[in-house]
Design a protein that fits this description.
Layout (H helix, E strand, L loop, with lengths): L1 E2 H9 L1 H9 L10 H19 L6 E2 L5 H14 L3 E3 L3 E3 L2 E3 L3 E5 L2 E7 L5 E2 L8 E2 L1 H16 L7 E5 L5 E5 L12 H16 L19 H11 L10 H5 L8 H6 L6 E2 L2 E2 L6 H14 L7 E2 L10 E10 L4 E11 L2 E11 L5 H17 L4 E4 L3 H12 L6 H9 L3 E3 H9 E2 L7 H7 L11 H14 L2 H30 L1
Parallel strand pairs: 1-5, 2-3, 7-10, 15-18, 18-19
Antiparallel strand pairs: 3-6, 4-5, 6-7, 8-9, 10-11, 12-13, 14-20, 15-16, 16-17
The chain binds iron/sulfur cluster (SF4).
Length: 493
């Protein structure tokens, strides 16, 4: 049977569908505590939503699976207004929509999600439907239409903000999406059906989703063995699919006469411009070089100031809370002067979040001549969000103006990604800092792990866990300092 969770997996990684169906379960990694927490939070949110619904509904969630489908069909025939936890199927399609709601055009499906209903929403822009949600809703809608229980392709999400977000599946997800959600569903269904019949083959690739996937260790071995193109930073699954048969490995790309694939600003490879292809080629060449050393492609000036601040925040996405603003402060380039300063929310309340933000804001005003280093947009984006939440601390314009000062340096976007070639498989701070000899004190340093620690701390109040979070954040800040020093060394060598 093709299920909604298969389509969800497909939207993250087609190979995940293959491995879930046919992979050797003995080579799966254990489910990560973060994923476990994600499931628990999702379940708790759903239970809470249903508990506070305030309208009558038929609850089939606890009915044994064998009877659930029959009872769902019967409830729809009887015209139940709202069905929770039903089960529907038609030929090889099986769905378990959280909600089935009666309308003038038959039943429409809905899901309860502990995330935002739209992606990319900001102050200025309304977000667009999420592909992974749309694929699941389309499967339910397809089953309902085939059964004659629905006349429309309408569906909806009840999201974490308490909003009902309408997903009209006949529409495109966004102005730049060439197909409607329904067409995307039909394509996905065809491929997933092909995978389930072993008529479609998939390959693993090194992508962001691997970090939380139980097949990570297995796939990583395969990817390294195959010398797969996704070992090159930013070369993901869709870009890989456009490469010609003679360039299927990092070695082949490194050996290729790349200019023969380039004409002006375009290339013979769909979706990849001339400069991007040259960058991928340069990364491939460096990866294959013994004892490779990263280098600059453009001049970079990383001036020193008497006081330097290396800045990193920690957030809890489940509580939508920024609870730690950490700084490593160094004076006159002297590492012995290093000091870790953290502004923290000691409780998960808006008051504590605001107080921590206010202290961190004051701190960077106090050191108004200091250069402030951070890694990627996350700190800036989070501070803008905090300013919208607590405008009496700072306005959003204040935050934008602060980060536009030349003394605020995004080491990732301003330097590493745009003006350098590294031999690493990723440009995240961890592989880069490790490649130049820095070691985190924690045995499992990762953003996902820190979210789980924070949750454990909230639930237990265990000081040891809190200290682990502080130590992890301090090491993230210090890794940035090590990286900045290495960049200066490379710059002058
Ligand atoms: S580890 Fe990565 S490539 Fe393998 S199935 Fe998971 S997401 Fe896909």
């Amino acid at each position: 049977m093709i299920t909604a969770s298969m389509l969800y997996s497909f939207s993250c990684c087609p190979h995940r569908v293959t491995l879930d169906l046919f992979g050797d379960p003995t080579v799966r990694d254990p489910i990560s505590p973060f994923v476990q927490l994600f499931w628990e939070r999702g379940h708790a949110f759903e239970v809470d939503t249903i508990k506070n619904l305030g309208v009558p509904f038929l609850n089939l969630r606890d009915v044994p699976l064998a009877e659930r489908e029959e009872l769902t069909s019967r409830a729809m025939v009887q015209g139940e207004e709202l069905i929770y936890g039903g089960r529907i199927s038609h030929s090889n399609l099986l769905g378990e929509p959280d909600l089935l709601r009666k309308t003038d055009d038959g039943y429409i499906p809905g899901d309860i999600k502990s995330g935002a209903g739209l992606e990319g929403t900001s102050e200025e822009v309304t977000g667009k439907p999420k592909k992974q949600y749309a694929l699941q809703l389309a499967l339910y809608s397809d089953i309902l239409q085939r059964k004659g229980s629905a006349l429309t392709r309408d569906s909806f999400i009840w999201d974490i903000h308490g909003q009902e977000v309408v997903y009209n599946l006949s529409e495109r997800r966004g102005p730049r999406t060439p197909h409607t959600m329904w067409e995307e569903y039909e394509d996905a269904l065809e491929t997933v059906t092909g995978i389930s019949k072993k008529a479609v083959e998939t390959q693993p690739g090194l992508i962001g989703e691997c970090k939380l996937c139980p097949w990570q260790s297995h796939c990583r071995r395969e990817i390294l063995r195959a010398d797969d193109l996704t070992l090159i930073t930013s070369l993901g699954l869709s870009k890989r699919s456009g490469f010609p048969p003679e360039i299927r490995t990092v070695q082949a790309l490194a050996d290729a006469d790349i200019e023969t694939y380039i004409q002006g600003k375009k290339t013979a490879i769909p979706g990849i411009g001339a400069n991007t292809l040259r960058t991928f080629h340069a990364r491939a060449v460096l990866q294959k070089m013994p004892n490779a050393i990263p280098y600059f492609t453009d001049p970079v000036d990383l001036p020193r100031s008497p006081i330097e601040l290396f800045f990193d925040i920690e957030t809890d996405p489940f509580r939508d809370l920024c609870y730690l603003h950490g700084f490593v402060k160094r004076e006159h380039g002297n590492n012995d002067s290093e000091e870790f300063i953290a502004f923290t929310a000691d409780e998960t309340t808006p008051e504590q979040e605001k107080a921590a933000f206010a202290q961190a804001w004051e701190f960077v005003q106090e050191y108004s001549d200091a250069f402030v280093y951070y890694y990627s947009h996350y700190e800036r984006t989070t501070w803008k969000k905090l300013a919208r939440r607590y405008p009496d601390v700072a306005s959003e314009d204040d935050v934008i103006a602060l980060y536009e000062q030349p003394r605020f340096v995004d080491l990732y976007n301003d330097v590493v990604r745009s003006k350098m070639i590294w031999p690493t498989h990723s440009l995240s701070i961890k592989p880069l800092a490790k490649s130049i000899g820095f070691q985190w004190r924690d045995t499992d340093p990762s953003g996902a792990a820190s979210v789980q620690w924070f949750n454990d701390w909230v639930e237990s109040g265990n000081v040891t866990i809190w200290n682990r979070i502080l130590q992890y954040n301090e090491d993230d800040c210090r890794a940035m300092r090590i990286l900045a020093d290495e960049l200066r060394r490379l710059e002058s060598s």
